[in-house]
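Hey, I'm writing a tutorial for new members on how sequence and structure tokens pair up, and I'd like a real worked example in the thread rather than a made-up one. If someone can provide the structure for the chain below, I'll link this post from the tutorial.
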Amino acid sequence: MVAIFFVTMLGYSHETSAQNNEFNIVSADTVVSTPVVSKPLVVKTHSPHKATFYSAILPGLGQAYNKKYWKIPILYAGIGGVIYGLDFNSSNYKKYRRAYRDYLLQDPGNQSYLNDNVRPRSTSLEEFKELLETDSSYADWFESALENKRDYYKKYRDLSYVGLALVYVLNLVDASVDAHFKTFDVSNDLSMHIEPTTTPMYGGYNSIGMQIRFTF
């Protein structure tokens, strides 16, 4: 019975040792892996809508977005020239409009038409007043001259507004077109071929001609 008990204990000890060894092997072979998340590839595109929007907010900003920096000074030179013309024509229009109105009203308190920058400089102020009072033809000529100058500067003031609007629109068009050309394909795959061709006609005849074929 002692032998049987010894054998039994030996078997139990061997089994426990085997289980421990098996547990250790499993623990050694276990590897914890972390999933790898790949970042999506972001491709930046050149947007004509952005270029147009930037130029609408601030003229020249779309050209800067297109990296056409040399166009910005030209654009602002054009804007500055148009604004100068607008200011010049507007100030002269207001001056002659007031002078023409004062001359028609003949109000002694408002005689802007007698100013040096309005009346003819070839005569003095006293001589000019005398001519207006004694010479009706001269008075009619002066009235007509005031009206013509008023209309002249009004016309070019309005044209200056049109010019300013055109410069603004051209600024938008230029930014949009340049942005489209950024993605335009100008590779060597673009080609043109001129080849002979035949076209079937009625009666079994064929016509001979040339065809132009574009490859892109």
